Amino acid sequence: MTLAANAAVASALTATNAVTHSASGRIFNFSAGPGCLPEEVVRQIQDDVLNIGGSGIGILEHSHRGKVFDKVLADAFENFRKISNLPNNYKMLFLTGGATTQNFMVPANLKPQDQTADYITTGYWAEKSIEQAKVYGTVHEAATSKDKNHSYIPADSDCKFSAKPAYVHYCSNNTIYGTEWHRIPKTPDGVPLVCDMSSDIYSRPMDFTKFGLVYAGAQKNLGAAGTTVVVIRDDLLERTPRELPLMLKYTTHAKDESRYNTPPVFAIYICGLVFKWILKEGGLEVMGKRNSEKAKLIYDVLDASKFYKAHARADSRSLMNITFKCPTEQLDDMFIKEAGKLGIDGLKGHRATGGMRASTYNAMPREGCVVLAQFMRDFEKRNG
Q1: 249: helix, coil or strand?
Q2: What is the 3-state secondary structure (H, E, C) of 163-218?
Q3: How far is CA 158 from CA 121, 146, 155, 186, in A?
Q4: Does 3 score more than 60 pLDDT?
Q5: What residues have CB less than 8 Å from 18, skipping those under 6 apart?
Q6: Domain spanning 3-30+284-383 has what CATH number?
Q7: Where are the domains of the chain?
Q8: Fold match, 3-30+284-383 / 46-281
Q9: Which pLDDT tens digit goes with each residue over 307-357?
Q10: Angle at alpha carbon of residue 48, lines to 43 and 53, rounded to 5°
Q11: DSSP assignments along 127-166, one per residue
């Protein structure tokens, strides 16, 4: 453990002084999103906002069709592909509107009005997806975990698909409820699988060839708020189930390399820096190992405790968003307040679950999870 982490644990034990994990004064940001960024990325941003690449102009001021951004965009595309070995028959796009816009762009581009699309609903965002798909005709809920407040991931045997769905959609990680798919669901042969990976993309090794389309808001593991990554297989890109405005067509953005109109230059630039950071750190194998170790530090406390109650079933636990409660709401509030004084921020849970939520995305340093775990033990000792 580093000196900074030792100091943090000491402060957690005494529950008095706020702590930081670097000379910059940054605290531990456990927010569900926008999530924390790697510190070295933030420092690079500081430099490039003033003057990127010796151009004499900051990244915020460069033309989206100038040579500087040409390189930024080309590097981002190249490194995204390198991280996951993305095959040539897939296009990678930078879009806007967040995953929320993808909730209607997916059915608009992939589902004919007279064909059914199947959805597996395991949380708030999956529910929002199915609502938007209904605008484009019939949808079928193949499985849901709503019966137990989305505390588990359905088994393959629980999924009942329609006869010939246009696609099957699911959300791989549920930020609000703290559950995550640790497998890819089995779907009917030949049916494209669509996945909202907003909160766990690039948190572990992944194989895009198992999917027809993947989308993810950037503000958790890929960068900052403002852009959405979409990966789509060429055969789905060619689907034209209805007439759409140009900006709602995936083909429009694929043809013009995400620059049909002025794209979110700054957000794309930050994604590019994060992609370089992932590669520098060792890629997805390293990310997956680190994230498992970080989450275990906190889950070990929950498993050994008679004070805290975890929301997610043990076999469905997220490695990205860890949700739990104290015995009373009053203690929840006290926990969040005391943690904040120690420099442990962003722990308040969503209103759907209450309690606490610790988001341990790629950029969360291990020391942050060490400090939180120690504070949890201390808080239980003093209040249990």
Answers
A1: coil
A2: CCCCCEEEECEECCCCEECCCCCCCCCCCCEEEECCCCCCCCCCCHHHCCEEEEEC
A3: 12, 13, 5, 11
A4: no
A5: 11, 27, 341, 342, 343
A6: 3.90.1150.10
A7: 3-30+284-383, 46-281
A8: no
A9: 999 999 999 999 999 999 999 999 999 999 999 999 999 999 998 899 999
A10: 125
A11: HHHHHHHGGGS-EEEEEE-GGGTT-SPPPGGG----SS-S
DSSP character for 317?
Answer: B
E-only strand ranges, the chain: 28-29, 90-95, 117-121, 139-144, 168-171, 173-174, 179-180, 193-196, 213-217, 228-233, 309-310, 321-325, 344-345, 356-359
Amino acid letter for position 229: V
Q: Which residue has the tokens 């997956």?
A: 288
Residue 92: φ, ψ to 5° = -115, 130
CATH number of 46-281: 3.40.640.10
Residue in this structure with the two tokens 């002025």, named with its chain if needed: 262
**Span 236-262, pLDDT tens digits:** 999 999 999 999 999 999 999 999 999
What is the model's pTM?
0.93
Q: Give me the active site residues, please.
A: 125, 196, 220
Distance CA 199, CA 109 (A): 23
CA distances from 56 to 50, 51, 60, 147 (A): 8, 5, 12, 58
Pick from 310, 288, 300: nearest CA to 361? 288
Residue showing tokens 């906002």: 49
User: Which residue is it, tokens 């929840």?
Assistant: 332
Q: Are 30 and 372 in contact (CB under 8 A)?
A: yes
Classified as helix, coil or strand, 345 is strand
CA of 150: how far to CAs of 32, 88, 223, 303, 348, in Å? 17, 36, 27, 20, 18
Closest CA to 360 of 194, 217, 204: 204
Q: What is the largest CA-CA distance in the chain?
A: 64
